[in-house]
Amino acid sequence: MITRLFLATALLLPAGVLAQNTPAATAPAPGDPLSSQFKINPVTTPTISPSTLELIKLEGQFSDSVVQGGGKAFASWFADDGVTLNNGKPAVLGLTAIAAAANWDPKTYQLSWYAEGAQMGPSGDTGFTWGHYDAHAHDAKGQPVTLSGRYITFWKKVAGKWKVALDASAEDAPVAGDCCKLPTP
After folding, report:
1. pLDDT of 11
2. pLDDT tens per residue across span 106-125
3. Of 2, 24, 141, 152, whose CB is crowded by the most CB atoms within 10 A?
4. Buried b vs exposed e over 135-155: b needs ≥16 C-beta within 10 Å?
5. What does the alpha-carbon distance between residue 146 and residue 55 come to, in Å, rounded to a whole number?
6. Listing from the earlier edge strand, what are the strands of the sheet with 92-93?
């Protein structure tokens, strides 16, 4: 997920002129575990454990809040000692640093994701989810920019409330044969 954070802050936001892109308006709701975008849901996987379903639902709520609230909402889910990791960039350590880096507006940068799996720790107060993310914005020339990739989120309970302990993401690898294409003018 931090890949999307860096895209918004380092690549797109300094350009100053971004158009709104709202692909989430036509896509199924990210937080709906019955949505067809989910690989795991209680209808298609009746043996899913309640703890796995709890984490998948939690991840959907996290994504929904970021679609609506942008970077401020993203940072609000982290524990005080949370960490973000992204594509060889330095780790961002602590809620204060994460909040400072996560300053994108959802009107100019749309970030959403969905869980494809989850596992609860044996004590029931830690767990992790993993899945796919999409980030959409426009560059300085008004051209759409989209990034997709994989993420993993480690969760822990802090004072009885779920918080993100670690969020790591990586962009999808280029499609075979795309490595040597020349950019179109």
Report:
1. 33
2. 999 999 999 999 999 999 99
3. 2
4. bbbbeeeeeebebebbbbbbb
5. 27
6. 92-93, 78-86, 161-171, 144-158, 126-138, 110-120
